[in-house]
Amino acid sequence: MNHPLSIADAAALLQRGELVAFPTETVYGLGASALDANAVAKIYALKGRPATSPLIVHVASIDMAKTLAAEWPSAADALARAFWPGPLTLVVPKNVLPKKTFVPNIVTAGLATVGIRVPNHPVALQLIDAAGLPLAAPSANRFMQLSPTTAAHVRAAFGDELPVLDGGACRVGIESTVVQILDGQVTLLRPGGISRKQIEAALGQVVRSIDEVAAGASHPAPGMHARHYSPRTPLVLVHSPADLPAGLGAYIWHSQFSLLPGAHMPGDPSEYAARLYDVLHELDNEGWAWIAVELPPESPEWEAVRDRLKRAGSL
Ligand code: AMP
Ligand code: MG
User: Fold this and answer.
1) Which of 4, 90, 163, 234 is deepest in the core (most CB within 10 A)?
2) How far is the CA of 10 from the centre of ligand 1 (A)?
3) Where in the chain are all domains bearing CATH 3.90.870.10?
4) CATH hierarchy code of domain 7-209
5) Dist. CA 238–CA 296, nearest whole Å
6) Which residues surround ligand 2, an ion (CB under 5 A)?
7) 55 C-alpha to ligand 1 centroid (Å)
8) What predicted TM-score, i.e. pTM, was given to this entire model?
């Protein structure tokens, strides 16, 4: 494209049932009208995403979120008030027909719940307002590959055909925290930009993880693919440089000093998360035999980063 896409142009495309990639504070999203099943089908087709993986619906306000929900539990309200706009997705019971804002089953992979969040990015919020639509949007990458944190990452994945709004680099850099509020239970489905501690502090109660629930349940949550967020280059997680594989590779380290090719990451978990995907995209393009990452500590503030690294690589 010769000149940058305007928000008005992007909104018009969305209203016509086309796809637009847009920035959020977490990662870039591949958006379509969440009320248009045909438009949402294009997301699954372009990404190569299995129909069993539900999409997050992006809205501009709590009021707009409520139009998509069958009920709005008090825990959802407390978390929305504490963290929206922000990197927190709330999974709540989905509305039912004949509502004008009915969320088609393709968005939620046939589930009776819907994942909703208000992104903390001016371009995303202006786009939702201009389109006057809730936007279903997964990360703007092909299925199982690395999430994009710049417009250039999106173009590298999909080429120039896909309209992309460029909002600069994503500030948070990893996906949202996903919390389900169902039948009076609050469950952490995926760690992310808002920590478990922050959620527990806002609710005044301890929050269960999906693994604790899944251990006793017949099936885990949908869309929780163990492998995800991966570079093409094999990624190994190591405790120290002594564990590095043979051959030429790149090493991502944050505590133990290294002269190996690769990247020195920040010691602060939020700053680390903000850089992680960009570093992985860059090293992935350099043709190394492997990328090794020094495992961050087992402590709570590293939970989201460790989750993404574990899904991207192997120990
Ligand atoms: P992504 O779009 O790749 O960031 O992934 C969105 C994630 O949100 C999915 O992998 C699910 O784990 C979660 N999610 C979205 N909607 C729902 C839902 N209705 N029920 C459970 N999990 C959901
Ligand atoms: Mg994704």
Assistant:
1) 90
2) 24
3) 7-209
4) 3.90.870.10
5) 10
6) 139
7) 5
8) 0.95
